[in-house]
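Entry type: protein chain
Record version: 2
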Amino acid sequence: MPENAGRKFGKGELYQHNVLNLVKALLRLAKGNLTLDDSQLKAAVQVAWLAQNKLEVTGEYKETTKRGERVFEGTTKQDLWQLVEKTGTPLQLPQRQRDDASTSAASRQADVVQNALYYLEDLGVLQNERPKNKRNTRYWIFTLTLKHRDASIEENLGVVKQKLGLEMLPPTDKSIDWQNVCRTMLEKQKQLTTNRLMRADEMLFDIDRIRVDLALVERKQTEKRSEDDNPARSQLYKPDYEETQKLEYEDFLTKVLKSEQSKKIAIIGEPGAGKTTLLQRIAFWILENTDDLPIWIPLGNFPNPAPKFKDSDLAPIRRNP
């Protein structure tokens, strides 16, 4: 459990903005693309990767006392504020309240940085690495658990964004042509269908030249004769269908598939009538005419008895823009 459990700190849009800007500044410093001309600030904020995904943030602060110069390990909230200012996108101060009208600007800035540190700890990104006997000092030593030391700044920031709920899905891998993957699987299935009963290549048929007679039907159930009857167990109880419209193949594509009047289509027919062939034609039509991805799942791949799916299990797959 983080040390700040139970503490109150801001979690609104402004504070999320500050969290991301602070982490981004530290990542830029780690990448070496943030130049610090101020030697004092350069010593006060130091970053280094301790592991593949752990970035340590510390510093070195020198203080002159009566007994001489003392060196303190760690960075301060004011130094972190100045670091983010160097990036050109400084942290934002919340609107001043009446009861803090006398609070100095430096104190308000320190509160903003502290809020960001507490927020990161609450998200599980920040781990306080200060010794227990120095937890109450003003010097901070902490690590950030991110994606990878070799990842880009945006990829590492993506870890924090996901924790904040700002980036729910990882970016799509555009190196994979998913339509081509679906096409390859469909071609394999088409070969299985045409080869199943054919012993020679010259006996194979071209699925693209086949036309299946189609008709739209409406399902009707026969009325029960008695309240004691159990239709699900009766062999005499069979669904009845009434034909409502005959369709040519091209009409089916236009009126049923293109119109998207229904997201669910059931294809029924006698064995050998062409149900599998029609499904394959539909799958190839989807590839050629839409950006959707048809996925072929043979019933033989399901266990017996087949599982019952809920609507949540059959939710449409959406691709990232």
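Comment: The CA atoms of residues 196 and 204 lie 10 Å apart.
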